[in-house]
Amino acid sequence: MKPRLLISLLCLSHLLIFPQDRHSINGTITNADTGEFLIGANVYLTTTREGTTSNNYGFYSLTVSGQDSVGIQFSYLGYESQIKKVVLRGNIRLNVELQPRTQEIDEVVVSAEAPDENIRSVQMGVLDIPPAKIKELPVILGEPDVLKVIQLLPGVQPGNEGTTAYHVRGGNADQNLILLDEAIVYNPNHLVGLVSTFNSRAINNVSLIKGGFPSQYGGRLSSVLEISMKEGNTKKFSGEGGLGLVSSQLTLEGPIKRNESSFIISGRRTYFDYLIKPFIGKSVKTNYVFYDLNGKVNYKLGENDRIYFSGFLGQDDAFYSQDGIEYNLLINNKTATLRWNHIFGPKLFSNSSLIYSSFDQDITALQDNAFSSVLSGIEDLSAKYDLEYHPNQKHNVKMGVQYFHHTFRSNGDSQVFANTMRPQEIPRDSIPLKRFNELNFFVNDEIKLSESFHLNLGVRVPGFFNVSANYFRVEPRAAFRHRIDEFISVKGAYTRMNQFIHQIPSAAAAIPTDIWIPSSERTKPQTSQQYALGLFRNFDDHAYEGSMEFYYKTMEDQILFREGNQFIRSLDVDDLLVYGKGWSYGAEWFLKKNKGRLTGWASYTLAWTWQQFPDLNFGEKFPFRHDRRHNLSVAGNYEFNKKWSFSGTFVLSSGSAYTVPVARTNVVNGGTIFEGNYYIYEQRNNARLNPFHRLNLAATYRKPRTLFGKKYDSEWVFSLYNIYSRQNPYFIFFDINPISQKPRARQVSLLPILPSISYNFKF
User: Fold this and answer.
1) At CB < 8 A and 24+ separation, what contacts does 280-284 make?
2) Residues 6+ apart with CB under 8 A from 393
3) What is the mean pLDDT of residues 142-153?
4) Which of 249, 272, 622, 657 is most buried, judging by how many CB atoms fall within 10 Å of its CB?
């Protein structure tokens, strides 16, 4: 349907259904100091408390009945609230700038949303992460990291020790959709996952959705992580940066034309190779370099139009060698987004985007005389068009369409070689390409049936097309919220999701040699259904926020390698795969303190995740490799005074599952992992790694300073990662004891206690 025809039908339906004595007040809400749009700002009538929130682009629309005048309150935590008296003479455009508030120590808050947003909102399984909190908590080597903070949230299981990988409600890491300014980021990691690719100084907003997905989101089974970059200061030139042990970074932003256009550019580069040398033995050789670069410009074409262009570049180049083990990694990420926001009228808003995303990885591993190599690459071209329609205060309708053109290249090789020879790596130009198209439609309506009962109903229709297979699916979405009183609400949700691309996990535990493949006639799209029910309760005038959520999720058409098979050089891998199902269920508890000198949260997850494949494990069910029964996380920050603050995190979880052989047999001139030895397996994921626990602490000292007559803010951050040097398992590998000649499992632990110091500045 053409956009103009769709818009005409929306306007006609509004004229026929809704009384014309109503008026619309709409506009944008921005930061008065920088001009940044405020996402999720609250807009309320002062009399009835009916209201709305600004969308992801800062736009709001509020419909009121035919009165002479109304009072409207605009608020956003951390900002001075404003009350505007509006005389109703037709529809009104009202753009509002909110002034950041200088808070007293006892008024410190950790949330950017309304204090009762978790009670009022229909959506459940959603957690917003303030950028300030990302910078506040201690992490590895003092490097602020959004993905490390996400691992501390309920329902989120961390990957290997110290890494940024995460698994949501029993899902694989590839079942998490990660968006940076609407572009898919396929590999969000640096340093084999120890640091994420997201520079916290370039981030404006972070939101994690793990259940009850609105219909505008799809393509993955487990979660959506939506990250918005800063847009650049439209008022004045400013900058911030940091010097740390892992990397240095610098962010500059300012107006191109005051109040009309702006830019931001942020870069980061590591010197990790020099840092790690004092902490490793003489037998270890390693080298590692990464960088990332974020940039964004925007221009206001008029009162109703604004365009944006943003981009991201990142690269990792690493080498590691120890005791006959050798790894080489080369990883590249690129994204670009061209976006146009248009306000058609007081009730109708549109967003149009052209998006580019690419990911390439080249990983080789050498363990004694076994060699493996994996090349994987994805390139996406995408176009999307979204409409947001506000007919009145009882409905908020969203609809849209998105098209993808995907290009894949994935290949690998694994072999045993003689000690005097080394296999050649796979020529990149020799890898054939696979292409497919994806088309998605969605519509969603948030309905306010009464003040206490709200519904969110939607449907998404994705389609997949290539030369070997076509798939069309229908994904219903439904959620409700019943507000019992001002401090208590009950929520429930049902979601059906499909995923057309697959990341095949390697059976080996040593390195991340997972590869991406598209669906085919035999490898069908993954499908999930999730049911969730939750109780949300706030205490002490919303100073404390609590929730308890229960979920049950089924996953169909899951894929793994066939038992006894190793990945060989082949483009079409369907014959090497087996297909099965998975299911996960559990309960999540969350308690957050929002106000006062001491802020933070505690979360606990009790969960079970199982998989069952007719061709694996004799058809019996087995634990998912990242199944962890118990997961406890505590995060806190204490503002001692205006100069000093202290923060800490503690995590404790059960060990994840892995597979160990029960015996071995000698074979002349043969073998798989080690020449002359075959290993015998009876059960899959029949062992558990040691339990995981770690305590991190940090102290921050802030002080305003002056340089060449110019004032700037400075801070020193002192942190200790893994303060009692717990040897948590990173991975397990097997070798032969040279004395007993018996096989043994050896644990590799990478991260002992790591002190760090960093210096940050802002002007």
Assistant:
1) 281/322, 283/322, 283/323, 284/320, 284/321, 284/322
2) 50, 51, 52, 62, 63, 64, 448
3) 85
4) 249
Bridge partner residues of 475 (DSSP): 460
Between 739 and 763, the higher pLDDT residue: 763
Top mean-pLDDT range of 34-38, 261-265, 282-286: 261-265
Q: With a cut of 80, say whether residue 720 has pLDDT above it.
A: yes
The mean pLDDT value for 157-172 works out to 83
Query: DSSP string of 417-481?
Result: --TT--PPPPPGGGSPPEEEEEEEEEEEEEEESSSSEEEEEEEEEEEEE-SS-EEE--EEEEEEE
Which residues does residue 494 pair with via DSSP β-bridges, in sequence order? 478, 531
SS3 of 107, please? helix
Alpha helices in 117-160 (DSSP H): 117-120, 131-136, 146-150
Determine contact, residues 287/270, Cβ cutoff 8 Å.
no
CA 185 to chain centre: 9
Q: Mean pLDDT throughout 507-517?
A: 54
Dist. CA 92–CA 23, nearest whole Å? 8
* Best CA proximity match to 180, nearest among 214, 159, 150, 204: 204
Contact assessment for residue 120 and residue 602, using Cβ atoms and an 8 Å cutoff: no
> What are the φ and ψ backbone dihedral angles of 613, each rounded to 5 degrees?
-125, 130
* Nearest-angstrom CA–CA distance, 751 and 275: 13
pTM metric for this prediction:
0.86
- Taking the CA atoms of 212, 214, 215 and 217 in sequence, report the sign of the dihedral they define: negative
Do residues 416 and 671 touch, judged by C-beta distance below 8 A? yes
Tell which residue, 558, 535, 690, has the closest CA to residue 624. Answer: 558
60/747 Cα distance (integer angstroms): 54
* CA distance linking residue 497 with residue 473, whole number of Å: 9
Measured in whole angstroms, how far is the alpha carbon of residue 521 from the centre of its chain? Answer: 30
Handedness of CA 573, 576, 579, 582 (dihedral sign): negative
pLDDT in tens, 521-539: 888 999 999 999 999 999 8
Cα(259)–Cα(273) distance, rounded to whole angstroms?
43
Residue-wise pLDDT tens digits, 612-635: 999 888 889 999 988 999 999 999
Cβ atoms of 592 and 110 closer than 8 Å: yes
